[in-house]
Amino acid sequence: MSNVKVLLARIDPDVELPSYAEPGDAGADLVTTSDLVLQPGERALVGTGVAVALPPGYAGFVHPRSGLAARSGLSVVNAPGTIDSGYRGEIKVCLINHDRREPLALRRGDRIAQLVVQRVEHAEFHEVEELPDSQRGTGGYGSTGGHEVLAAPGDSGAGHRTEV
Ligand SMILES: O=c1ccn([C@H]2C[C@H](O)[C@@H](COP(=O)(O)OP(=O)(O)OP(=O)(O)O)O2)c(=O)[nH]1
Ligand SMILES: [Mg+2]
């Protein structure tokens, strides 16, 4: 994995800086600066205590952590959150507790999400009358099959049916 230098400023002087738990990890863990309890289905915007200046041509993506997701249902509402290279404010994370029964308590300093820094391209959009052919064509949204959904007893499917 290649490295890119990213300038970082602490907004909160006492919190842990983003860090990679293992050498090959794609994401540097981010912490919450506040204690909070998320009720089932509840969301909250939390600070991470850091701001960065990503070089032009890079962006940061705030991803959930899989362990917390599997164990507790914690996720990021807008996953992955996008950190623009020009953004100089505190990185914040919009957390959500997807568990249907259990509240989730988080403490200041807990690692709640991970920041993946990637190169990004700007598209130059060229409008044309017709797009070139491809094997997939306009098929999408399950056109290749492999995921039959079983309706629950008494479930009409209303509310989550999509015609494509
Ligand atoms: O999880 C996130 C997502 C975004 N941001 C910050 C950095 C990003 O550069 C800025 C704008 O994000 P985005 O473009 O996703 O939000 P928007 O709703 O389009 O806001 P804006 O109008 O400010 O672009 O907000 C975060 O701190 N955390
Ligand atoms: Mg935006």
TrEMBL record:
<dbReference type="GO" id="GO:0006226">
    <property type="term" value="P:dUMP biosynthetic process"/>
</dbReference>
<comment type="pathway">
    <text>Pyrimidine metabolism; dUMP biosynthesis; dUMP from dCTP (dUTP route): step 2/2.</text>
</comment>
<dbReference type="GO" id="GO:0000287">
    <property type="term" value="F:magnesium ion binding"/>
</dbReference>
<keyword id="KW-0546">Nucleotide metabolism</keyword>
<dbReference type="InterPro" id="IPR033704">
    <property type="entry name" value="dUTPase_trimeric"/>
</dbReference>
<keyword id="KW-0378">Hydrolase</keyword>
<dbReference type="GO" id="GO:0046081">
    <property type="term" value="P:dUTP catabolic process"/>
</dbReference>
<comment type="similarity">
    <text>Belongs to the dUTPase family.</text>
</comment>
<feature type="binding site">
    <location>
        <begin position="65"/>
        <end position="67"/>
    </location>
    <ligand>
        <name>substrate</name>
    </ligand>
</feature>
<feature type="domain" description="dUTPase-like">
    <location>
        <begin position="15"/>
        <end position="145"/>
    </location>
</feature>
<feature type="binding site">
    <location>
        <position position="78"/>
    </location>
    <ligand>
        <name>substrate</name>
    </ligand>
</feature>
<dbReference type="InterPro" id="IPR029054">
    <property type="entry name" value="dUTPase-like"/>
</dbReference>
<dbReference type="InterPro" id="IPR036157">
    <property type="entry name" value="dUTPase-like_sf"/>
</dbReference>
<feature type="binding site">
    <location>
        <begin position="82"/>
        <end position="84"/>
    </location>
    <ligand>
        <name>substrate</name>
    </ligand>
</feature>
<protein>
    <recommendedName>
        <fullName>Deoxyuridine 5'-triphosphate nucleotidohydrolase</fullName>
        <ecNumber>3.6.1.23</ecNumber>
    </recommendedName>
</protein>
<keyword id="KW-0479">Metal-binding</keyword>
<dbReference type="InterPro" id="IPR008181">
    <property type="entry name" value="dUTPase"/>
</dbReference>
<feature type="region of interest" description="Disordered">
    <location>
        <begin position="127"/>
        <end position="164"/>
    </location>
</feature>
<comment type="function">
    <text>This enzyme is involved in nucleotide metabolism: it produces dUMP, the immediate precursor of thymidine nucleotides and it decreases the intracellular concentration of dUTP so that uracil cannot be incorporated into DNA.</text>
</comment>
<dbReference type="Pfam" id="PF00692">
    <property type="entry name" value="dUTPase"/>
</dbReference>
<keyword id="KW-0460">Magnesium</keyword>
<dbReference type="GO" id="GO:0004170">
    <property type="term" value="F:dUTP diphosphatase activity"/>
</dbReference>
